[in-house]
Amino acid sequence: MFGLEPSLPAKKALNIFKENKYSKIVELGAGLGRDSIYFGKNSINVTAVDYSENGIKVINEKIKKENLTSSISTLKFDIREDLPFESNSVDACYSHMLYCMALTQKDLDKLNSEIHRILKPGGMNIYTVRNTDDGDYKKGIHRGEDLYEIDGFIIHFFSKDKILNLTNGFKNLSIDYFEEGSFPRKLYFICNKKNWKIILNFYIFSYTLELIKDLDQQIFLSLLLF
Ligand SMILES: C[S@@+](CC[C@H](N)C(=O)[O-])C[C@H]1O[C@@H](n2cnc3c(N)ncnc32)[C@H](O)[C@@H]1O
User: Fold this and answer.
1) Do 225 and 187 fall into the same domain?
2) Is residue 42 located within the same domain as residue 102?
3) Is 76 touching ligand 1 by the criterion CB < 6 Å?
4) Nearest to 191 by CA among 15, 71, 31
5) Is 205 a pocket residue for ligand 1 (Cβ < 6 Å)?
6) Residue 83 beta carbon below 6 angstroms from any ligand 1 atom
7) For residue 54, how far is its CA from the centre of ligand 1 (angstroms)?
């Protein structure tokens, strides 16, 4: 679908995984597996998720052929449902051009919160999207929000504001512009880190509020922590 070689974002993501000593990741919307196979070959333990039966079949064949059964597993699954992983169990989630599929803002908010739930504290969500500079933006049939249908295929286009509004519980580390293919598609590479400080501060805050009865001191504590 998008070539056999690993994508540019996968190469960039692998460096981030290595720098942060991440070894257990989930790829969402893995397609025909070009990036999952690359991660698996580079000693990353991957679960490749996609709702396409054919996609999962192709990835399974590649895993067998490349002898990667110990590092890659697959899951046929619709990511609009609750993700079937334990809370705080995954080092990183990675997706290349999944967020910009036919997913509404409501779907994306839910996906983001599910990714936040399954990531370990300090874990990362790395994803790419087609952006509003793309030549296809506002072409074809408008399907609500920033979704446009072109040749029967719905694409959700992202501005930087939309990306920054989708960071609930995360700290945005970067939004990098890049291009892919001969058209070329114009995309952003986004890196969001699960904000363990907010979670920790919330617990400290709740606990300390129980102890402090003075309103001024409560306000001071709120300003200090958030
Ligand atoms: C644009 S393709 C990118 C594939 C792959 N990441 C790559 O770069 O080669 C998007 C992928 O997301 C999958 N996808 C779209 N919506 C999905 C959903 N709701 N649940 C699971 N997978 C989905 C599609 O089946 C497709 O394989």
Assistant:
1) no
2) yes
3) no
4) 15
5) no
6) no
7) 12
Distance 223 CA to ligand 1 centre (A): 42
What is the domain count for the chain? Answer: 2
Query: Is there an atom of ligand 1 within 6 Å of 125 CB?
Result: no
Domain for residue 2, yes or no?
no
Q: Are residues 143 and 169 in the same domain?
A: yes
pTM of the full structure: 0.90
Collapsed DSSP state (helix, strand, coil) of residue 27? strand
For ligand 1, whether the C-beta of 52 sits within 6 Å is yes
2-21: average pLDDT: 94
190: pLDDT strictly greater than 90: yes
Instruction: State percent of the chain over pLDDT 90.
Output: 84
Ligand 1 mean position, distance from CA 99 (Å)? 9
Q: Please give the residue range of the domain that contains residue 111.
A: 8-194
Give pLDDT tens digits for 34-66.
999 999 999 999 999 999 999 999 999 999 999
Four-point Cα dihedral 13, 75, 46, 160, nearest 10: 20
CB neighbour burial string for 45-80, b if at least 16 within 10 angstroms, e if fewer: bbbbbbeeeebbebbbebbeeeebeebbbbbbeebe
| Confidence tier at 132 by pLDDT (50, 70, 90) | very high
